[in-house]
Amino acid sequence: MGRPGSALTTGDELFIGIRPQRQIVTGVLQAVVSGIKRVGERLAAPFRRGDGPNKFRLSSMDTATTTIDGSVGWRNRPPALLTCPRCGDEIYQANARDEIDCPHCVEMVDPEEFADLELLAMECPVCRNRMRHGQRHPERFDFPEWATCDSCRYHWEFKHSYD
Ligand SMILES: [Zn+2]
Ligand SMILES: [Zn+2]
Asked: What separation in Å is there between the alpha carbon of 27 and the centre of ligand 2?
């Protein structure tokens, strides 16, 4: 069974490698600051249509005027709502690279351990609705490989295509 850290593409491995030591407080703070910056860039991204290597846009089959926004890749994953393994409350992970930090208790889970936690839902980065999610290869990966928003039709895929 794979997990996010082991099944990533070349670009994703980079951020795993630069993950800060959690005991170095300044490093964590810098990571938080840059994380917020990245989230801000990512939230703005859906409105800058057509730019960025991982953003794609598909014409709907039924009408030429409808388009579907989305993103591809684990690091472009929508925010996730997870269940805290210690207190059972909800943890909001805004970015796939962020520490999974429970606001209700002392639990702090490494982002690479994502697959060990129960995923409640992903949140649409455009309209903030809860997205449906699922797997395509449950025998290969133990984390979600797609998520889709029924409200605005934003769609996320772990990979463009599978071999
Ligand atoms: Zn907790
Ligand atoms: Zn949406």
From this structure: 33
